[in-house]
Each structure stands twice: as C-alpha cells, then as structure tokens.
Amino acid sequence: MKVKVCGITRAEQLVALEQGGADYAGFIFYERSPRFMGNKLDARTVRETAANIKK
Q1: Residue 24: left if φ>0, alpha if ψ -120 to 50, beta else—which one?
Q2: N or C end of the chain: smaller count of CB under 10 Å?
Q3: Pairwise CA distance, residues 43 & 1, whole Å
Q4: What is the reported pLDDT for 19?
Q5: Per-residue model confidence as pLDDT tens digits over 2-52
Q6: Using an 8 Å Cβ cutoff, are 46 and 55 in contact?
Q7: pTM value?
Q8: Residues 38, 20: Cα–Cα separation, whole Å
Q9: Is residue 7 within 8 Å of residue 37, measured between CB atoms?
C-alpha cells in the first residue's frame, strides 16, 4: 500500500512523514485554503527535508 499525505505546510511535518515511511507528500497551492503552502515552505527545504518522499 502507498501512503500520501496532503496539506503539508511545515518542515516538521515533512520530517515526521519521512520518519513514518510515507511515500508521497502533497502541497496545496490554492491561496484561499488554510493549508496553502505559499511562502511557508520553499522548494529547497522540501528537497532537503524529504529526499525520500515523492512530491
């Protein structure tokens, strides 16, 4: 079974997903969403924090 978690907005969440063995992480780009990642995470942080999780 593959596991995907969406609505990631903080690096700590990515760390927890990596440690928990998640396969995928999803990000919300809709500005009106309370889970909008906008300027909360940058691409470099996502790449470095969750290298083993597909985005």
Answers
A1: beta
A2: N
A3: 27
A4: 94
A5: 999 999 999 999 999 999 999 999 999 999 999 999 888 888 988 888 888
A6: yes
A7: 0.80
A8: 25
A9: no
For tokens 């596991």, what's the residue? 3
Nearest to 39 by CA among 51, 47, 27: 27
Residue 51 exposure: Cα atoms within 13 Å on the Cβ side: 1
9-39 core/surface letters (b: 16 or more CB in 10 A; e: else): bebebbeebeeeebeebebbeeeeeeeebee
d(CA 50, CA 34): 22
Q: Which two tokens stand for residue 50?
A: 């969750």
Residue that has been written with the tokens 């609505």 in this structure = 7
Domain boundaries, the chain: 4-49
